[in-house]
Amino acid sequence: MAALESLISSINGIVWGPLMLILILGVGFFLSLGLKLMPILKIGTGFKLLWSGRKASAGDESQGEIPPFQALMTALSATVGTGNIAGVATAIFLGGPGALFWMWITALIGLATKYSEAVLAVKYRETDERGKHVGGPMYYIRNGLGKKWAWMGVVFAIFGACAGFGIGNTVQANSVASVLETNFAIPTWASGVVIMVLVGAVLLGGIQRIGHVAGALVPFMAISYIVAGLIVLAINAAELPNAISLIFTHAFSPIAAQGGFAGAAVWAAIRFGVARGIFSNEAGLGSAPIAHAAAQTHDPVRQGLVAMLGTFIDTLIVCSITGLVIVSSGVWTGGEQGAALTSAAFAHALPSFGNYLVAISLAIFAFTTIIGWSFYGERCVEFLFGVKAIVPYRVLWIIAIPVGATLSLDFVWLVADTLNAMMAIPNLIALALLSPVVFKLTREYFAKH
């Protein structure tokens, strides 16, 4: 086990090295400039389309499986998860408060990345043998770049099918099990079994049921968590100016060791801020466009404008609240990490209540992430092996939940982090090569509207 951990750690150091960060930030920056900062300037338009997309437009019902709103909620169900609670805390524990600044930068340029992914997903989607609309990076690589690039779509699908077991399954189950054990003394194996049964019940209903569950749970859980976070920030109001100062100062200068905090160089703030930002909002990873390809819409740009809200809501709202709560509470120097650090920060402002709030939020966040990511993995194995592979994949997915709940957290995060990067590389290359298509469709859409 130690040798395996060492090997994956070495691979992780390479795939999350400077080249990867340049690729993620570089492609996002290039797309932002090519779109003339449209994703940042049109956030309001995105929210209007989201509201009107609760039901499919007339004539669009046959164009996909779920309304545009449910497509975003399915993508958000997979996105708003442990990354928003445990991931932000881990970034601050390893990179200091400055890591939050780099999460924000990743999100701002990630708006253009997420927008472009969804535009291409709808533009190049296909109908499978069951009559379902399928799409995502593997399809826009094959249909947009042609046969000579088809191998890259296969590589993405392999890593996507495997990465799901990390980012979308075992990490989530592990975080829920550990937080429920800490706060409610529930054994990890028991949490694993309960999650397994609940997830199995939803997965039997396919994308329509996933869309309905996500459409109901995601808005409720996100709003509840945001309100609780804002209450804590109001209680910590006197500490907020200092917290914001720490975030901006240590984004560009190292921070010394203090208390249980080991200290961090600027490179650590950048590396963990970007890595955890991507882990949380998944912009550039290629996962969310798989959900958006199922949307009942005829217009790729409209779905892109809705899709980019996933990054905005996930990182610029939810992650920001978590990060500000942690830094303003002062508990980030106490030596805790992951969900335990976020729990301590909420409990600091809301004694005997805050930690339970985090535990319940994390459990719901992670449950919906497991459901959303199962759909991503299914689409990847369907691309590789056809419809017949879906049921065996679902069975494996359900079995992995209790296993993940009882594994070592450090090892699980390491594997998830590494597989994320392996998925992102072919997707980011495809986004750069297909950017002229995105720019052209965007120009044509805004010339008419």
Characteristic terms for this protein:
single chain, 449 residues, mainly alpha, globular
Care to describe what's here?
With 449 residues, the chain is mainly alpha-helical. The chain is built from 21 helices and 2 strands. Strands 1-2 form a two-stranded antiparallel sheet. Helix 2 packs across helix 7. The chain is globular and about 55 Å long. The model has no long low-confidence stretch (mean pLDDT 88).
**SS-derived structural category:** mainly alpha
Order of helices and strands: HHHHHHHEEHHHHHHHHHHHHHH
**Uncertain runs with pLDDT below 50, 5 residues or more?**
none
Amount of helix: over 70%
Alpha-carbon distance between the two ends: 57 Å
Report on the biggest sheet: 2 strands, antiparallel
What is the global morphology?
globular
Count of DSSP H/I helices: 21
Spatial arrangement of strands, main beta sheet: 1-2
Strand content: under 5%
Quick one: how many beta strands?
A: 2
- Output mean pLDDT: 88
